[in-house]
Amino acid sequence: MEGLKSIIEGKEGRTVLLEHEVKEILRQAGFSVPAGFFAPKGASWEEILERSAALSFPLVAKVSSSRIVSKTEVGGVKTGIKDIHALKRAVSEILSIDSSEGVLIEEMVPEGLEIIVGGSIDDQFGPIVMLGFGGIFVEILKDVVFGLAPLEREEAAWMIKQLRAYPLLRGYRGRGPFDTDSLIRLIVAVSEMMAKGNIKEIDLNPVILYPKGATVVDGKMKI
Fold first, then answer.
1. Hey, what domains does the chain have and what are their CATH numbers?
2. CA 10 – CA 161 distance, rounded (Å)
3. Which of 30, 70, 118, 191 could bridge to 130 as Cys pair (CB 3.0-4.6 Å)?
4. Is the per-residue pLDDT at 126 higher than 80?
5. How many other C-beta atoms can be found within 10 angstroms of the C-beta atom of residue 35?
6. How many CB atoms lie within 10 A of CB 84?
7. Looking at the DSSP assignment, which residues form a beta bridge with residue 204?
């Protein structure tokens, strides 16, 4: 991914990419991310208002910081923002958070099936890829599978079928079937990034899967 190389260059001394940087890498690689923009700390309200005009409500505003592990724990995620007044209040609260480096403002995406795609460097096996369903499936049921990077399409498809909740992808309660081809393409791309050795860890959580397409809603990356 050329976007990965260009964004990593010039980041000497930093080990964590901000969410908008991770999403720019994915966007340049052809993956869907929510429409939005990053406003660094110090940006004027006039600048933020002007850029927000290109977005459609409802919006979400999230704190950006390389030092904050959990955005929700510090009150750094504001969802369901329905108008300019609510946006201004949300931005003000987020920029006042300790260690805040700016705010990411995005359009909220439709509901779908939550998936987690990640990668890390295992001491024994080297670069690996993790796949799981989001929400209760990963928190309580621990429904995850692992593969060695890099992965071919067939191997990514095999990983998907190993998930206990795999039948959900074929459709349930009038929803789906879901776009496994888009998911396979994302898994393979993450595996290729991990295999090149530039990344220590990547966590795309959640990825919202739809009957057609998938959108990466949140992403973290350590380099």
1. 35-108 (3.30.1490.20), 113-222 (3.30.470.20)
2. 40
3. 118
4. yes
5. 13
6. 14
7. 117, 219
